[in-house]
From TrEMBL:
Annotated gene: ded1
Protein name: ATP-dependent RNA helicase DED1
UniProt motif Q motif: location: 25-53
Upper lineage: Eukaryota, Fungi, Fungi incertae sedis, Zoopagomycota, Kickxellomycotina
UniProt domain Helicase ATP-binding: residue ranges: 56-247
Domain called DEAD-box RNA helicase Q: residue spans: 25-53
Organism: Coemansia aciculifera
Family to which this protein belongs: Belongs to the DEAD box helicase family. DDX3/DED1 subfamily.
Protein's job: ATP-binding RNA helicase involved in translation initiation. Remodels RNA in response to ADP and ATP concentrations by facilitating disruption, but also formation of RNA duplexes.
């Protein structure tokens, strides 16, 4: 499955926006957190894909990004690597805000990273990858999706949830039940944004991102991924991203 590294040099990669930083060239010389580098190697990754080369570099520069890339281009690492590199570097107290604000007695979990994805299968795949890259770190990944027992998911969340992978509908439900608070979010990812809109999730996505306790666009890092870049995705990018770099890998449809 996955990636044909032979054809790498043929893939056109284009970055636009204000001063996009240069992509990293390989994992070893990217000055990654040692634990993240170890976990990447243990997962069998040797060379970063084009999306990963750019996103690691943009993550370090604190930039938002909108990446258009096809299935199989390594988008999962593309968002997990910059998020985990920064989170491992800062450690739990700094990454979580450190001032104890909002930690009143409540059963809500307060993840620092939220990844929205359209389907149960995709959320599960992302959380499995995340589990490998988070191995032996303080970051605890957690996954929730619709069509499954919500009580069981709430129990698992209560054991620890720093990085939450969620389908939009189920997340809205958990927020409304007071089980998830967005107040600590530092990283927001919309994966397969075009598919989420095709499935009719735009109202839920807007309810989540525009919720009053979600940190504003200046207080969080936002990364969007989509195979295509039609008008409705352009509008979401305009509303959710700040000073973003537009990255296209391969040919992108409109
Ligand atoms: P996308 O989300 O763009 O469809 P994925 O992130 O799911 O792509 O990656 C597709 C497959 O390639 C997965 O099996 C993943 O583990 C593998 N993969 C991703 N990046 C690398 C890499 N740098 N080296 C080796 N395998 C990779
Ligand atoms: Mg994917």
């Amino acid at each position: 499955t996955g990636i044909n590294f032979e054809k790498y040099d043929d893939i056109p990669v284009d970055a636009s926006g204000r001063d996009p930083p240069a992509p990293i060239t390989n994992f070893e010389e990217a000055d990654l957190e040692p634990l993240l580098l170890e976990n990447i190697k243990m997962s069998g990754y040797r060379v970063p894909t084009p999306v990963q080369k750019s996103s690691i570099s943009y993550g370090r520069a604190g930039r938002d990004m909108m990446a258009c890339a096809q299935t199989g281009s390594g988008k999962t690492g593309g968002f997990l690597f910059p998020i985990l590199n920064e989170s491992f570097r800062k450690g739990p107290s700094e990454a979580q805000g450190g001032d104890g604000r909002g930690h009143y007695r409540s059963r809500a979990v307060r993840p620092i990273a939220l990844i929205l994805s359209p389907t149960r299968e995709l959320t599960m795949q992302i959380s499995e990858e995340a589990r490998k890259f988070c191995y032996r770190s303080w970051v605890r990944p957690c996954v929730v999706y619709g069509g499954a027992d919500i009580v069981g998911q709430m129990r698992l969340m209560e054991r620890g949830c720093d990085l939450l992978v969620a389908t939009p509908g189920r997340l809205v439900d958990l927020i409304e039940r007071g089980r998830v608070s967005l107040s600590n979010i530092r990283y927001l990812v919309l994966d397969e944004a075009d598919r989420m809109l095709d499935m009719g999730f735009e109202p839920q996505i807007r309810r989540i991102v525009e919720k009053e306790d979600m940190p504003g666009v200046d207080e969080r890092h936002t990364l969007m991924f989509s195979a295509t870049f039609p008008r409705d995705i352009q509008m979401l990018a305009r509303d959710f991203l700040k000073d973003y770099i537009f990255l296209s890998v391969g040919r992108v449809g409109a």
